[in-house]
């Protein structure tokens, strides 16, 4: 295992991102052996929801990387350092979710069907303006950051999960918090000549579109996976709604952070939740190394 590196962003504070932010690339590996079929406390709804999420990550995170890299020219030193760290973290996330998805397939789940749907959706983005892809990435990165913060702040989300799987999701969550402002700062850089109104309008319109597509597609994907477990009809839908909205209720809990995105002047680092990272850094201490 290659030990991860710290990326300390330069101290010139050109964005609302904390000037002392450290983005650490943790080269961790998980799920190379085996996990239970229903790894989320033996419960099908959490297992299916997170399996559906994981199935989207390999292609989705490659899309994020390309969307951000397309606008890195002319970036100031702080943002350039953030982008380099972001890319390295996302590459590692992709690798680990490929391994996790392979285990899900070994348990008999048709994960490739979800991957094909993601591939078809991403094909539709090829001919649209790259700034629109960046706006979509910015919105989706806000989703990952919201869920990451919720998962780390409320351990009940993975309290009874298989330890290896829980470690992977916590590792992923830590790094999503660290780089949660990168796509947003890249957007501000790419649209620096736009009016505030134009920025706000496209940013929020894309969030509404992303929200609709995100929940529609994850709902369909999760119900498909539940059906593969023999859970269908009203039982599947009610059980999934309870999981998302009641207990542990991740969607209900992230709603205030979702609303905040629409505020004029919003930035992901308006809420500095780096203390959540400190709760888990001890688990990765052996993997840390000085900056390159």
From TrEMBL:
One of its GO terms (molecular function) is hydrolase activity. Keywords: Hydrolase. Pfam families: Metal_hydrol (PF10118). This is Metal-dependent hydrolase. The lineage of its organism: Bacteria, Pseudomonadati, Pseudomonadota, Alphaproteobacteria, Sphingomonadales.
């Amino acid at each position: 295992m290659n030990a991860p590196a710290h990326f300390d962003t330069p101290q010139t504070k050109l964005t609302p991102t904390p000037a002392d932010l450290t983005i650490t690339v943790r080269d961790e590996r998980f799920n190379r052996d085996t996990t239970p079929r229903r790894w989320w406390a033996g419960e099908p709804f959490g297992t299916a929801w997170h399996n559906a999420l994981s199935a989207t990550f390999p292609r989705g995170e490659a899309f994020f990387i390309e969307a951000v890299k397309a606008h890195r020219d002319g970036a100031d030193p702080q943002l350039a350092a953030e982008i380099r760290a972001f890319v390295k973290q996302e590459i590692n996330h992709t690798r680990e979710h490929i391994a996790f998805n392979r285990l899900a397939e070994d348990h008999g789940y048709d994960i490739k069907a979800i991957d094909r749907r993601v591939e078809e959706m991403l094909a539709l983005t090829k001919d649209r303006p790259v700034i629109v892809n960046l706006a979509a990435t910015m919105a989706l990165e806000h989703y990952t950051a919201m869920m990451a913060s919720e998962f780390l702040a409320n351990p009940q989300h993975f309290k009874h999960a298989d330890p290896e799987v829980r470690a992977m999701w916590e590792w992923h969550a830590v790094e999503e918090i660290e780089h949660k402002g990168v796509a947003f700062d890249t957007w501000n850089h790419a649209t620096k000549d736009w009016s505030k109104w134009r920025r706000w309008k496209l940013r929020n319109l894309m969030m509404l579109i992303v929200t609709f597509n995100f929940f529609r597609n994850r709902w369909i994907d999760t119900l498909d996976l539940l059906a593969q477990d023999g859970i269908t009809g009203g039982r599947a839908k009610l059980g999934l709604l309870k999981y998302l909205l009641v207990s542990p209720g991740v969607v209900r809990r992230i709603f205030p952070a979702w609303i905040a995105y629409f505020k004029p002047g919003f930035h992901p680092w308006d809420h500095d939740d780096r203390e959540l990272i400190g709760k888990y850094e001890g688990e990765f201490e052996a993997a840390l190394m000085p900056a390159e």
